[in-house]
Amino acid sequence: MNNTQKLMAAVAAVFIAGFLMVGSNKEESNQSKEAAAMIRAVAAMQTMATSKCPTAIKAATGDQVYFSTSTDTDKQTYVSMTWDAAKTDDKYSFKKAECTLHLTLGGISKLVIDDKVIINKEVKY
After folding, report:
1. Tens digit of each residue's pLDDT (9 = 90 or more) over 17-26
2. Count of domains in the chain?
């Protein structure tokens, strides 16, 4: 073997060792799996709320709402969104709409428009 072949074999060995080291460290810990699952659950809950709440408000009032004026969440079980006509330039036929979505229900648990309860479902933990 000449020096060029030895050098190519050494470079190939370094690449193979690098791939093996990276491949062996790919396994996630339980803690990182739990954190990733919580992030996915919060994202899914927020997505569900931003799609279901405006649809329910439109069905009840006929007004299409877009961006809530405030959002409250515990980042685990619920998202509560509020549309306040006094805090926006949008013109609504209502003064205030509050929509709460619980992950355990998989949908809207409470919808209140101008202090009138439209939806009120019991949440079980």
Report:
1. 888 777 776 6
2. 1
